[in-house]
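Pasting as-is:
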Amino acid sequence: MYEQTKAAPNALSTASLLFGILALLTSITVVAVPFTASLAITFAWLSRGNKRMNGRAVAGNVMAIVSIVLGITVLIALILALISWLHGAATGGTIEQLEPYFEQLKPYLDQLGIPYQLGR
């Protein structure tokens, strides 16, 4: 009776999906995330027109948002690691500060046959 026709996939929603995948794959490189994620979100919103987003656009949008969160997390971790490294360099953090801990481990290292020599 009635023939059901399947709507053709929107090219903008496909582009959103591809840029969302690319943003997720490059979320570790903090530099590429803003570019790829913003393109994925833009294409997702442009693809909808006056109707609801289709599945590809929603998936691209979600992956872009997740990649932004991961990118911010990686950026914060890098900043904290840099601050920690600079603090250790400024306070003269050396291996000799760890010597009391290695002295406590010395009996266990001797049992395992691991030679113990700290910075000498």
